[in-house]
What does this fold into?
Amino acid sequence: MGDRTGLGDASECTPCYRGFWCSAGQAIACPGDTYNEMEGKFNQGACKPCPEFSVSLPGAPGMAHCVCRADYYNTNSSEYPRCAPCPRGTDCTSNGTTTATLQAVMEPGYYRHSHRSAEIRRCPDYRANQVRLRL
It folds into this structure.
């Protein structure tokens, strides 16, 4: 990318950044929900779509910047998202929920055994507590 005037040769050019593609000396951010992991790309085809049910901000420099969209959570322990619908009993209303953060979005009357588990269970006496509270 020739981001300065008066360059003497190609060695003075700066490669187009990750997360962008370049045209006519201009760096253009990859659109939202896409990413580009490589430098020096010169067409928008370098911007790859995020995995299914995930989103990213414009200019994402890698798949790790794609996060699961609202109502989905990342079931994958690596940096690359594999998104599944949030289990019943959770309230995943924002982007980026993971198996580890499901605990923070659980609705009243639900629990899970560990932060690694996505198995959400209803408390056995949940309805009994609601009846007592109304009396």
In short: The beta strands are 20-23, 26-29, 34-35, 48-49, 54-55, 67-68, 72-74, 83-85, 110-111, 121-122. The longest helix spans residues 126-134. The chain has a mean pLDDT of 84. The chain has one helix and ten strands.
